[in-house]
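Figure 2 data, in text form.
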Amino acid sequence: MSLTKAPKRHRFPLSIINQAIWHYHRFNNSYRDIQEQMAFQGIILSHETIREWCHKFAYHFLNVIKKRERNPYDKWHLDEMNVKTNGQWFVFWRVVLQL
């Protein structure tokens, strides 16, 4: 899930920008949380920089994430079966997803 064109006038490479934006949109982290995560990896940047990147590239990443998520209208069915074994009744359930 990367940007199609290299962003102009950015100090950091695309891989770092992608990672910061992806963490924000996918895991709903705050800008300061992402700043700490990047600092842990040795990449020092401001939470304001992350905010600007997220606003600039938001629609691209949201569209990609939405395409990969499961459709909320998927149907599933619950099958139930009663079985008598050695004089004792057991109930088995099975979920069947329609993909």
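Caption note: The CA atoms of residues 1 and 30 lie 20 Å apart.
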